[in-house]
Amino acid sequence: MSPINFVYLAAVLFAIGAATVLVRRNAIIAFMGVELMLNAANLALVSFSRIQGNVHGQIMAFFVMVVAAAEVVVGLAIIIAVFRARQTISLDDPAELKG
Questions:
Q1: What is the pLDDT of residue 81?
Q2: Of 32, 57, 76, 84, which has the fewest Cβ atoms less than 10 A away?
Q3: Other beta carbons within 10 Å of 61
Q4: What's this model's pTM, rounded to 2 decimal places?
Q5: Which of 33, 42, 28, 31 is nearest to 15 (CA)?
């Protein structure tokens, strides 16, 4: 199988993740869309690394995974804190918490 097929798959996955973030108002679902976009970026990095014949894309994908893990910890903590305060995880409600 050609590595360019994986690049096409990464583009489709990224588009699905972006549409999820833009359309859905549930924080958990939007969060899952962001994670899907990060995984699509990882797939693209590894695919381009395979096409070029070096490991630079794979190393970058490792750092993206580290950032994604940190983002999960912080993001879920924020979502839980908002849920405890408001009893909802809608993305429209935290805007009311400003000043």
A1: 86
A2: 84
A3: 22
A4: 0.84
A5: 33
Ramachandran assignment for 88, one of left (phi > 0), alpha (psi -120 to 50 degrees), beta (any other): beta
At 86, is the secondary structure helix, strand, or coil?
A: helix
Distances, alpha carbon 74 to alpha carbons 11, 67, 69, 77, 81, in Å: 26, 11, 9, 5, 11
Could you tell me the residue range of the domain that residue 42 belongs to? 3-97
Q: Which amino acid is at 52?
A: Q
The residue assigned the tokens 């993206």 is: 64
Residue 60 belongs to domain with CATH number: 1.10.287.3510
DSSP string, 14-78: HHHHHHHHHH--BHHHHHHHHHHHHHHHHHHHHHHHHHHTSSHHHHHHHHHHHHHHHHHHHHHHH
Question: Distance between alpha carbon 58 and the CA centroid of its chain, in Å?
Answer: 17
Mean pLDDT per segment of 10 residues, for the chain of length 99 residues?
Answer: 92 97 89 94 95 93 93 90 82 64
